[in-house]
Amino acid sequence: MTGPHTPVDAAWENDFVLELRLLDVDGRLIGDALEQVRTHCTDSGESAAAAFGEPAPYARSLELPAEPARLGRILVPSLVGLAGMYVTLDAVMALRTDEPFTLTIGLLVAIGVMVLAVVMAAQNLRAVVDHAVRSIVIGAILLAVAVTAGELLTGAVAQMPAQPVVVLGIAMLLGSAITEHRAAAGMADPVVSPVDAAGAAREERSALRTTVLGAWLLPAATAILAAAVWFIF
């Protein structure tokens, strides 16, 4: 976030902000609380740790109001886009080899595993943050399960022409991206200082750009992978 230089330790600030983020506190409220800490440390000469103790317990003690749950608004478009990516890439491969698109048990399992992984991570952010290494290992295992299922469970559930499936997958990707793009203004929530209006405006513009770009990341990645499938394989 923006703000004047203060003696507050960067690690303390980061842990303080992270805890409030995990509590779903609005970015402006976080910025205001952080500015109060900075002001106290500047005026008193104390460190944040000496004045307020550990950052996470202090953040919880403030009992700042949480924002309304945004998990659904974030997750649903992302999950639709993720499924669209899987469907599009499989359909492009079928189109490239002049074969019909085959909906296999493995594809359904792969999509299900990845959706489950995203939902579990989103609903257990504190555990993901507190146990980062374990979370990475679990994520790698789930990814391996998804890839293995896609390769080994080849039993056909349904077959259909590849072209309309490509269109369906692209529609899912674009629908997901457009939904996230249109919601970007409400989702961008930077931590901004209440005493630096110009800096706050810059932070908000930067956060909005990042959120908008993030909305189109999955379609862009799918396009690159689809091109690789088409021209390399």
From TrEMBL:
Keyword tags: Membrane, Transmembrane, Transmembrane helix
Parts of the chain that traverse the membrane: 74-95, 101-120, 132-150, 162-179, 212-232
Source species, domain of life: Bacteria
Name of the protein: Uncharacterized protein
